[in-house]
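User: Before I run my own analysis I want an independent prediction to cross-check against. Here's the chain; please return only the structure tokens and, at the end, one sentence I can use as a sanity check.
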Amino acid sequence: MEKASCLLCPRGTEAKLHIRTHSGGYPFSYLKCQECGLVFLSPRPDGKEALQFYPQDYYGENPRKFRSGLEALRLFFAWNRMRRVRKFFASSGKALDIGCGEGTFLRLLQKEGWECHGSELTAESASRASRLGIPVSVGPIDEQRFPPHSFDLITLWQVLEHLPEPMKTLATATHLLKKGGILAISTPNIESLQAKVGKSRWFHLDPPRHLYLYSPRTLEQIMGSFGFRLQKLRHFSLEQNPYGWVQTLLNLMGLPENGLYTILKNMPARRRPTLSRYQQAKNLLLAAGLLLPCILLSLKTALLKKGDTFEAYFSLESLEV
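Assistant: Structure tokens:
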């Protein structure tokens, strides 16, 4: 385990306990910087320890992340994300998706005429997108792999919170992005109403995989230090926010932690936590009753700019010398 500190403030800036929680039988603590409000996990697993929390089937059992009935819905969400991105460009270009997962988003961009590249943490996870014909690098992004300022678009969909050295990744992304290019980021919102209600039972807390938890304010401050300007901020995600409410409320009701997610994910039987038929039925029935109210609640919190995840689009205003 290793200690972490705030990304924005000088080392030694006071940070107080924000949330104490547990995962997999291990206790974890999130601290909040008293200067800027950034929340981070400390202590946290070091590089080798972290890999045990990303098993080979982290994205689900090949070739699907979720059970077959939900794959069409996941494809619809990826298509919508691609459509939102395309609005920033008059024509196709070159894209890099950091933490590309199964490569669905990039495959949709490819069909629109884009040159697409991805990256993943391990060779096993990279193989998913590679099967679609997408070039995928393994490990941290290396700026020597591509010519400087060669990408029109770089994306991090629900990835930034996982990175132990996000400033290094963002510096590399800045080096690879063209002037005027778009860097798109989606991430959980630690200042959301859902986070405040869920506290240690918040679905998007996800220790110890989520190392830093951002708000729109802290993320904009970070991106400004690299020469980016915020172009658009979305507080509503049909893909993330209603389900986040459903699972958080089920957790608060005392059901097995993230039990519904366990049921929906395409996990091998040997790794699937044991849920009795009664527990499975209770999860599914309660979730069905909660879904519509949670969609409405997600819309309302988005209007209040308190959505539980947010999607931010930044343009690179200047190139480093």
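Sanity check: The mean pLDDT is 91.
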